[in-house]
Design a protein that fits this description.
about 425 residues, alpha+beta, Aminopeptidase, Alpha-Beta Plaits, six-stranded mixed sheet, about 35% helix, elongated
Length: about 425
């Protein structure tokens, strides 16, 4: 891991910014502005990282939204806060828009999120800098990426390159723990995407790769039942709920496993004479005796897939395994809480080629498609079917969702230049140019 990180640092250090022959004079001017903005970018990053915005800290999420909303207003965007119903217990979302001339380039949706996994009681709360690395809650996932987005737009505005462009920014307030139902929590995002041709997601970067596909997920709950009796009667008076549960999970492993990008994982199992399980909090209790055949068992987990078709095939195959009951048992499989997949469609690869071209022309090297199996679910999946989509345009760092979260400052200017030039080309050229 250390070798890979050092290699990336060398790659960034050696990449000559804005030296390529194919960049236009306007693009070179945009790229030149970005290194000079880094001090202001760092100050903004420290400000928003030091505002706790754990998903369930509603005031904190709104405060980060206010700070960033001010930045977008200064860039000529119309900014509004989209509240969510009280029943969702989520803060809401920031939407910023610039409406340009009809027929001018492609309409962009830039996507990010304001919340982090670190709630107010987390000991990991403050921004810190050590040479070229910065750490803090959400510094890489994804407050640094939003600051990078602001910086790219700032450079574009300074060169008059935002004039006439249609750009919407959607910063979600509950990406780390989406409110339910998702149809309500993501309504503003879907609406913004309906007016866009391209969605650019600013989740974390690997520098050499971008995301054309992300797996979706759905949660599942398996409940099995058997006849309670003395343990001396096992296999004669019935096989019990725990054996039935074990048979089904083994069947999933043997008969459903195998398709590329398809995984399913049982994360919690309980069984005994008395079982209580909360599918929301993912906590429960179980009690029993060693000489009693368990009448109840439950397991819960997730299913991840690259397309809706793959999800449907997996559900059907899992259900078929469930129905092959051991004698004296029964079982039910329930699916809930799903997030769609970002499917790898041709338009996404077209965007990847455009990003690759920009990166090479900036002297930052090629960009290829990242293996979707290495990325979790993301908000871009809710709108990837509506427009061409590309993700992974954010900051270079690691340790996400842990007290070791960090971001590489040295990579930030080059990644910001890449995003700025990509935005410029997409908003000034029609598809296919």
């Amino acid at each position: 891991m250390l070798t890979l990180f050092l290699s990336l640092l060398c790659l960034v250090a050696l990449a000559p910014a804005a030296q390529a022959q194919k960049l236009s004079s306007k693009e070179r001017a945009i790229a030149r502005r970005i290194p000079g903005q880094q001090a202001a970018d760092l100050a903004l990053l420290e400000k928003v990282v030091n505002i706790n915005s754990g998903t369930h800290n509603l005031d904190g999420v709104r405060a980060v939204g206010q700070a960033l909303g001010d930045e977008f207003r200064r860039l000529g965007f119309t900014v509004r806060w989209v509240p969510l119903p009280d029943s969702l217990r989520r803060a809401g979302h920031l939407i910023a828009e610039r409406k340009g001339r009809k027929g001018r380039g492609r309409r962009l949706l830039l996507l990010g999120h304001l919340d982090t996994v670190f709630e107010p009681d987390s000991p990991f709360q403050r921004f810190e800098r050590q040479d070229t690395l910065v750490s803090g809650p959400g510094v890489n996932d994804m407050k640094g990426a939003i600051v990078m987005m602001v910086s790219a737009l700032k450079a574009l505005q300074a060169e008059g390159a935002l004039d006439g462009s249609t750009i919407t920014v959607a910063l979600m307030g509950d990406e780390e723990d989406t409110g339910e139902p998702a149809s309500v929590a993501r309504a503003a995002l879907v609406d913004a995407a309906s007016r866009s041709d391209v969605v650019l997601g600013f989740e974390g970067s690997t520098y050499t790769q971008a995301v054309v596909a992300r797996r979706g997920f759905t949660s599942w709950r398996l409940a099995t039942h058997g006849k309670q009796a003395h343990s001396q009667g096992i296999f004669k008076e019935g096989n019990g709920a725990i054996y039935e549960l074990a048979r089904i999970l083994d069947g999933f492993y043997r008969e459903v496993r195998g398709e590329p990008n398809l995984t399913f994982n049982p994360g919690v199992i309980l069984g005994g004479t008395e079982v209580s399980f909360d599918t929301v909090a993912l906590t429960g209790t179980a009690a029993g005796k060693l000489n009693i055949i368990a009448p109840e068992a439950v397991a819960a987990g997730d299913l991840r897939y690259i397309s809706g078709d793959q999800e449907q095939r997996a559900r059907e195959a899992m259900q078929k395994v469930v129905e092959q009951h051991l004698e004296g048992t029964s079982a039910e499989l329930t699916f809930y809480g799903s997030s769609p997949a970002m499917e790898p469609k041709p338009g996404n690869y077209t965007l990847l080629r455009e990003l690759d071209s920009v990166s090479r022309e900036l002297g930052s090297g090629p960009v290829e498609a990242q293996d979707p199996g290495t990325r979790g679910a993301g908000d871009i999946s809710y709108v990837a079917a509506q427009a061409d989509a590309l993700d992974g345009l954010g900051t270079l760092g690691g340790g996400d969702h842990s007290p070791d979260e960090y971001m590489n400052l040295k990579a930030m200017p080059a990644l910001t230049q890449r995003a700025a030039i990509l935005i410029y080309r997409l908003t000034h050229r029609r598809a296919g140019r």
